[in-house]
């Protein structure tokens, strides 16, 4: 092999290594994530209606009673590709946002669990099931 070819191959290798390290940082692709949406609203109020969907998956509409936990899981494919959206309705209020994407995973689902708790004052996330108040972060408000 001549010198130029070796240099070319070496660069290619370094580049792909660099890319996989960076990708791992951003999304941990190929990992299995569990997302939960839990109704943490008061007793004796309306049901919580949710609609969860991604670009190629529609998980449908679901009515959740108090403490119901709607859970699904998936494996990420490539960085930046997997994203699930949630739309929420309760007592005349509405909310809508991304319930899973790379940034959320990196910031809030380090344990491969994204646990959403829906409360009267907004939408909270934690990286484990049955979190205490200190382990919950409030990310969104009802509209
Ligand atoms: C889970 O979230 C808490 C904050 O609520 C954080 O202190 C902890 O480090 C996170 N766990 C992991 C494994 O990153």
From TrEMBL:
GO biological-process terms attached to the record: rejection of self pollen
Signal peptide stretch: 1-23
Subcellular localization, as worded in the UniProt entry: Secreted
UniProt superkingdom: Eukaryota
Record keywords: Secreted, Self-incompatibility, Signal
GO cellular component assignments: extracellular region
UniProt family annotation: Belongs to the plant self-incompatibility (S1) protein family.
The name this protein goes by in its record: S-protein homolog
Taxonomic classification: Eukaryota, Viridiplantae, Streptophyta, Embryophyta, Tracheophyta
């Amino acid at each position: 092999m001549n010198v130029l070819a070796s240099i070319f191959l070496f660069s290619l290798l370094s580049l792909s290594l660099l890319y996989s390290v960076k990708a791992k940082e951003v999304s941990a692709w190929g990992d299995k994530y569990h997302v939960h949406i839990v109704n943490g609203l008061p007793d004796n109020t309306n049901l919580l209606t949710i609609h969860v969907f991604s670009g190629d998956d529609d998980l449908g509409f679901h009515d959740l009673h108090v403490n119901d936990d709607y859970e699904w899981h998936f494996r990420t494919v490539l960085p930046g590709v997997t994203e699930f959206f949630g739309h929420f309705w309760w007592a005349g209020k509405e909310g809508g946002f991304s319930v899973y994407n790379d940034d959320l995973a990196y910031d809030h689902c380090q344990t491969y669990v994204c646990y959403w708790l829906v409360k009267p004052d907004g939408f909270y996330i934690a990286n484990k099931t049955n979190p205490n108040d200190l382990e919950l972060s409030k990310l969104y408000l009802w509209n």
